[in-house]
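Hi,

Apologies if this is the wrong queue. I'm a grad student, and the batch job for Tautomerase YrdN from Oceanobacillus indicireducens produced an output file that my downstream script rejects. I'm not sure whether the problem is my script or the file. Here is the sequence I used:
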Amino acid sequence: MDVAHQVVLEAFQVPEGDRYQVVTQHEPYEMIMKDTGLGFERSDDVILFTAIITQRTNKMKKDFYRLLTERLEQQCQIESKDVMITFVTNGAGEWSFRFGKAQFLTGDL
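Support response: The file is valid. Your script probably expects a header line. Output copied below for reference.
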């Protein structure tokens, strides 16, 4: 989780406190992660990393993909072939951090 957060900070240039993470673990038989026809195989140590983000540039996304896989391999010994990353993108109006207010829309953020 710390590796992922450092990559978020670097690639998306967000404040240190912009950290919201949930980890869910599954048994290998509970996940099917094929290669989409790209011709590689994954191990049973596959990770699906999904981030919900506001609009980011393609460069930021590419930097995130590269940095996350590099650092997971370097710091956690997770091979890049076992990391699948996907973004779910939404707008400012889809976020409420507390009090039932949309802080991006109210100008609080």
